[in-house]
């Protein structure tokens, strides 16, 4: 199963062991779920962990994301970005473009994606995997 995974899932998954995002992260690491991301997701995760845990930790996480995820380059979906510009916040337009272009679900903890049928919260996604979710949405 291939899905677009937002930076929020990686951040919550690495910060909170008992979260739905942590379950998803483990499924990605184990290869059960194939995460599709872009450079923007990597940048957001690295920026967050550089501030919280230092550059060395952030570098390790970046290396792992590049190893365990399919990283789409902007040129792979640039034609789709314009179709969705203005229909979602600018910061999320690239993510939506990838999901639309490659027909992927979006797994995120971000209400900006709510109007789109591709959107699943981490809890909804974990339920869809047939796993027992935590009570939190993230």
Walk me through the topology.
Elements lengths: L1 E4 L1 H9 L4 H11 L3 E5 H15 L1 H14 E4 L5 H7 L5 H13 L2 E3 L11 E2 L1 H7 L10
Parallel strand pairs: 1-2, 1-4, 2-3, 4-5
Helix pairs in contact: 1-2, 1-3, 2-7, 3-4, 5-6
Structure description:
The protein is an alpha/beta fold and 138 residues long. It has one domain: Rossmann fold. It is built from seven helices and five strands. The protein has a five-stranded parallel β-sheet. Helix 1 packs parallel to helix 3, helix 2 crosses helix 7 and helix 3 runs antiparallel to helix 4. The relative contact order is 0.21.
Question: Key features?
Answer:
138 residues, alpha/beta, Rossmann fold, 5-stranded parallel β-sheet, 5 strands, globular
Please state the structural category.
Answer: alpha/beta
How far apart the termini lie comes to: 20 Å
| Count of spatially separate domains | 1
Helix content: 55-70%
Query: Would you count the extended β strands for me?
Result: 5
Q: What is the typical, i.e. mean, pLDDT?
A: 96
Order of helices and strands: EHHEHHEHHEEH
Short description:
The protein is globular.
């Amino acid at each position: 199963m291939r899905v677009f995974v937002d930076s929020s899932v990686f951040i919550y998954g690495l910060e909170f062991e008992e979260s739905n995002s942590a379950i998803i992260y483990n499924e990605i690491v184990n290869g059960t779920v194939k995460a599709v991301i872009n450079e923007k997701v990597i940048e957001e995760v690295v920026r967050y962990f550089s501030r919280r845990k230092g550059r060395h930790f952030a570098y390790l996480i970046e290396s792992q994301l590049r190893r365990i995820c399919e990283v789409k380059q902007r040129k792979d979906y640039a034609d789709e970005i314009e179709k969705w510009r203005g229909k979602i916040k600018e910061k999320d337009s690239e993510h939506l473009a990838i999901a639309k272009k490659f027909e992927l679900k979006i797994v995120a903890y971000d209400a900006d994606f709510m109007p789109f049928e591709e959107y699943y919260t981490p809890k909804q996604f974990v339920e869809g995997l047939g796993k027992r979710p935590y009570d939190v949405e993230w």
